[in-house]
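Example with several molecule types.
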Amino acid sequence: MSTRVYIPCDSSALSVGADSVARAIEDAGLSRGLELTLVRNGSRGLFWLEPLVEVETPRGRIAYGPISADEVDSLFGSNFLNGGKHPKLLGDIEELPWLKQQKRLLFARCGVIDPLSIEDYRCHDGLKGLQRALEIGPKAIVEEVIGSGLRGRGGAGFPTGIKWRTVAGVQADQKYIVCNADEGDSGTFADRMLMEGDPFSLIEGMAIAALATGATKGFVYIRSEYPHAFRTFKAAIGKARMAGLLGPSMLGQGPAFDIEARLGAGAYICGEETSLLDSLEGKRGQVRAKPPLPAISGLFGKPTVINNVLSFGSTPWILTHGAKAYADYGMGRSRGTQPFQLAGNIEHGGLVELAMGITIRRLIEQFGGGTKSGRPLRAVQVGGPLGAYFPGHLLDTPLDYEAMLAAGGMLGHGGLVVFDDMVDLSRQARFAFEFCAKESCGKCTPCRIGSTRGAETVDKIIAGQDRDKNIALVRDLCEVLTDGSLCALGGLTPLPVLSALNHFSEDFAPPPVRQAAE
Amino acid sequence: MTGRAPWSAVEASRIIEEHRALDGATLPILHALQEHFGYVDSAAIGLVAEALNLSRAEIHGAVTFYHDFHGAPIDGAVLKLCRAEACQSMGCEDLVAHLADAHGIVPDVTKSGVGLHVRTVYCLGNCALSPSALLDDTPVGRLDRSRLDAIVRDSVRPQ
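Resulting structure tokens for the full complex:
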């Protein structure tokens, strides 16, 4: 029998040479006359171990990593096809504490299956959620999603089921399901991993939403910075059509539903839902005033469910296992699991799916393993470029929607970017304004003009010019941005700026007066 | 990633025709044009506007709004260098300084000459292996000076 060898085709794995490892293993297998089947899986999310090579053995999937192409010969020399000893041997992948301590519901299949094999997907509980959805009907689907407590994983945290109920309750000749896959926040990569590693779960989730609301057409808007995710997802749509999951009748039992993948064009603002809708319509991606809500008047003026990749991706599990099983995870009003993403200056970066409510500190200490540089940790930015910088004494804040808000931050899309003590928070505050200025859609004045004035004013502070006066000015400007912006870009840019000012004021001190050299 | 076909209105019209039936066809058409010709020629704006029954201003507005579309062919390879927070935490700005010092390349400013066009992007979704870049369509993780030097070297075309 042919031995199955897994090498990820996830973008992160590719970025450190997974393709050349795959080629080397294939060539070495051929030249040695060994029978092996190469599977290009998604990533398990242990990125410091990529390229991670797994071999299927009677003792489980034995992992080796990180492997470079020139180590492949020594792998064969160590009889790795039977799980032999090697300096890079990690053992049974499922037994690694980093993975074992997680609660992988949404990411259960990612890195395990062949992303483009619908048979593999079915063998790992795929399509069970949709099957049950077809049995219980639209009303009960919405009840399940509401009961699960699932909230929008894109960052806004709006209850997903309530959104679906609104769309279901509107009469219209056409409704749409739109997936926001414009994952632009620095420090986040969960959407990309899911689209590259388990794309059918997103398709299934969107099909469930379509069933619940009566929509017949779906769009997935993927950012152009993700060319691999776009290609994989497009291929998955083709496979789903062939398998009858998409098309004139879902699985031959339900109504018609089809999905189109669309490519963004390099605009961060298109991650804002109304900009995304305008972009899909072929316009400049500018923010719309709300109301009307997209649920009432969304894409092309029709009722539209617009959710993040992770929100849709969570619903097959919820439908399969029931609302209560999902709601049993989490704390307070944040139910279920969140795929957290450990990023930046961190030793063990990657994807950690856990029940909501773990503290920042535990996540970084238990999973992250300290900074990559080995220097002391100084700040953690949670929730992307619009999230707050947390200092050491606030690291015990639980990662849940309300607790993060109370601490002056936001959970956002669940990304954590770690900085060591080389970071200068006045520079980070300036960057927050600069980023807002570059990516502003220009529709509202506070965001368009305020961001530029903000960057200029922080420059003056850094130069030691009228420090106190200019800090007061920045605070005032932040108030205008918070209260007067049309969307979260202008509205939340003050979070990184103010958290930097409040928690790291020493970085905004006037530079020490230089002594004359002579 | 980008095509090299010389501009042809006939060919452009064929590409537009291929996509015009899509809902909200503007972006798919612009992407297809750029993929074929390597850029969006200003002459294409009128053709797209006419095919979609939109004004030239609307199409021009879309082309100029999005960072991805460019109005002239790009000479050589494109390196999209991430300069967002996760990559900042791992020293991407040092790499930017190195590009300028060692190779005279300033992202988004230096147009060509070395056969490598370096563009700033914010996040490539490879934030656990920062600093990160995308060389045409190939992701590059844990980018460092020597790798960057090699990329610049490899992109210099023989005279």
